[in-house]
Amino acid sequence: MTSRRVALVSDGAGYVGPHLARALAAADHDIVVGDPEDGLVESLQSLGAAVEVVERTRFLVEPDASERLAAAALDRFGRIDAAAAFTGKIVTGRFLSSSLDDLRTAVVGCVEAPYNFLRAVVPVMVEQEGGGQVLVFTSAAGARVTPGAPLYSTARAGATMLVRNVAAEVAGRDVQVNALGTNFIDFDGFVKASRADTPEGRERVEAQVPMGRLGGLEELAHFALPYLDGRSRFTTGQYVSFAGGWA
SUPFAM superfamilies under this entry (predicted)? Predict the structure, then answer.
């Protein structure tokens, strides 16, 4: 058991996971982290956090990944105060060229994965004293029509509605569930997928963003922190975009 809040971060090796884990540790949280990158555990411990590592959890489409994360938190710390998950399977291409298999891939990656995570952590928070906070990272593509990725956009919108429905169901139990949708974030996955890995490619991509630049992972972590760190507990069932004005 611990007197500090306990935060669960599903992926400690990619995207904003390492940045968010460090921000939470600096905000007086012990950390349960899936598949941490080299040096992350030591970094978290230097910030005063006790750390529990869970291996092979990056792919939340596998139901036992979320279940093992939740079980590890309960076994080590006895509770889960905050939980963040990063989900999604990008499926591109026009609707007229798509197949049912393409749709199923999008739904599994973008809807089933967050379902598995929510199903693992929300019941824990409902039953424990003090409730908890969940933040599901989705995509700003679910907030607007997205030419070239209609199935992905549709599945992401479904994930947002799942979050809102779960939030409504458990709002009276002091459990917050919110969604954060991103796009145009400066990390390897997006840069390569959008062919922004050359000066010309980056200029082309940044021209699509009203703010004229890509978003940073550090600033994304700080934007997400108030939805998880226990200091603001009066909003739930919300979706917010972090996409430089694109959505």
Answer: NAD(P)-binding Rossmann-fold domains
pLDDT tens digit sequence for 26-81:
999 999 999 999 999 999 999 999 999 999 998 899 989 999 999 999 999 999 99
User: Which amino acid type is present at position 184?
Assistant: F
Q: Domain tally for the chain? A: 1
- N-to-C CA span, the chain: 41
Question: Which amino acid is it at 245?
Answer: G
Residue whose entry in the numeric block shows the structure tokens 């019941």: 123
- Give the separation between CA 115 and CA 191, rounded to whole angstroms: 28
Kindly list the distances between the CA atom of residue 63 and the CA atoms of 57, 66, 136, in Å, as whole numbers in the listed order. 10, 6, 16
Q: Residue 11's domain spans which residues?
A: 5-185+217-239
Residue 112, number of CB atoms within 10 A of its CB: 20
Residue 54 CA to residue 74 CA, distance in Å, equals 12
pTM here is: 0.95
Residue ranges of E strands in the chain: 5-9, 29-34, 51-54, 82-86, 132-139, 175-182, 239-242
Task: Read off the CATH number of the domain in which 57 is found.
Answer: 3.40.50.720
Give the contacts of 138 (CB within 8 A, at least 6 positions apart).
Answer: 87, 88, 110, 114, 156, 159, 160, 163, 179, 180, 181, 182, 239
Is the Cβ–Cβ distance between 244 and 220 less than 8 Å? no
**Total count of residues recorded for the chain:** 247
CB atoms within 10 A of CB 13: 15
Domain annotation covers residue 211 = no
Distance of CA 196 to the CA centre of its chain: 23
Residue 90: which pLDDT band, with cuts at 50, 70 and 90?
confident
